[in-house]
Design brief:
- It is a single chain.
- The chain starts with 6 loop residues before the first helix and ends with a helix.
- α8 links the parallel β7 and β8.
- α9 packs antiparallel against α10.
- The protein folds into two domains: 66 residues, no CATH class; 169 residues, Rossmann fold.
- The chain is an alpha/beta fold and 334 residues long.
- The protein is globular.
């Protein structure tokens, strides 16, 4: 179920879901609508969980009683990873069947021409790939995909580029994708639609403009679009490498190629935000521990707490740890 579904079909789906006639529904953010009710929702799977806000993820879980929620991402956001550390979520990892070899190189913005020469050399050798920027139209000092497409078409006509972005019609998207697969286009100039919207195993190259405008999860997802046949691939990153935390993020991205490790480093870099609130990054006001300094210690504390609870779930032998008893004392003293 998506917003583009005709209203007549939407109404039918809503009625059949509420009546229990549909056992599985797949959709976009439209599934979060308050008008959509489930007779007995038991499992909610959220793919690319970093694309959803805290309240949005909670909404699905609140559409039933005791709903099991599965969050999926190649690079979990800091807040989600923190919840696994604190025991609020269980973490499972799926490893790739093969090892992709994707080299990542960083270029300052004044080195942009060097990056393009390298990209051009590799394309002349038969490679294909993407050039990605953060927006469609030019804005201040940021490069837009549309003007970038025009620049590339003029400077490198032998790239045979095609433009693809979220607002493009489905038929135009399919035409660009089919042309790339058939070898008609060597390069797709795109917005972040590349991140989760394309699966073209033949792509070997990725160049990202204004890379500091993207989060680590986005960058890692885009890098995952190349070398999908386990061929050698190359990611060229152009950005402001001295832009404070943005520069730190880019250097981290170039140094780490495993999503789970990247997410842990992002957690230390940005902080987890509010575990009981809505912020998804930023350091919490811990009085003693420091997330940057004590990440390993927090993991040990979580494991110790889980071991105690597995043996003594009601904390009978550990009353001093019982939050329930503390809350009872607070209520008595009110």
């Amino acid at each position: 179920m998506v917003n583009a579904v005709p209203q007549k079909d939407k109404d039918r789906i809503k009625k059949e879901l509420a009546a229990g006639k549909i056992s599985l529904v797949i959709g976009t953010h439209s599934l979060l609508s308050k008008e959509l009710n489930f007779i007995a929702l038991s499992l909610a799977v959220i793919d690319e969980e970093h694309k959803f806000g805290v309240n949005q993820r909670d909404l699905l879980g609140e559409k039933g009683k005791g709903v099991h929620v599965l969050l999926m991402s190649a690079t979990p956001i800091p807040r989600t990873l923190a919840l696994t550390l604190y025991g609020g979520l269980s973490l499972s990892s799926l490893s790739e069947r093969g090892k992709r070899k994707v080299a990542t190189y960083l270029f300052q913005k004044d080195e942009r021409e060097v990056a393009y020469r390298l990209f051009d050399t590799l394309l002349r050798q038969g490679k294909t790939g993407y050039v990605v920027t953060s927006r469609l139209k030019k804005s201040e000092d940021l490069i837009g995909a549309r003007p970038l497409f025009e620049e590339i078409s003029g400077r490198f006509p032998h790239w045979n580029p095609a433009l693809i972005y979220g607002g493009l019609s489905l038929s135009e998207k399919e035409k660009a994708i089919a042309g790339f697969s058939a070898g008609k286009y060597k390069v797709l100039v795109a917005t972040s639609v590349v991140e989760v919207g394309l699966d073209l195993p033949e792509a070997d190259l990725l160049m990202v403009e204004d890379a500091e405008r993207f989060g680590l999860s986005q960058l890692h997802q885009m890098r995952g679009r190349i070398g999908r046949k386990f061929q050698d691939a190359l990611c060229l990153v152009i950005g402001d490498l001295e832009s404070g935390i943005g520069g730190e993020r880019l250097n981290l991205f170039a140094a780490v190629d495993q999503g789970e490790q990247l997410a842990e480093d992002d957690l230390v870099l940005r902080g987890e935000g509010e575990v009981l609130g809505e912020r998804q990054h930023g350091l919490p006001p811990l009085r003693i521990a420091s997330l940057r300094r004590d990440l390993k210690l927090l993991q040990v504390a979580r494991d110790s707490a889980q071991e105690i609870l597995s043996k003594d779930p009601n904390l009978v032998s550990h009353p001093e740890l019982s939050l329930r008893l503390q809350m009872q004392d607070i209520q008595k003293n009110k």
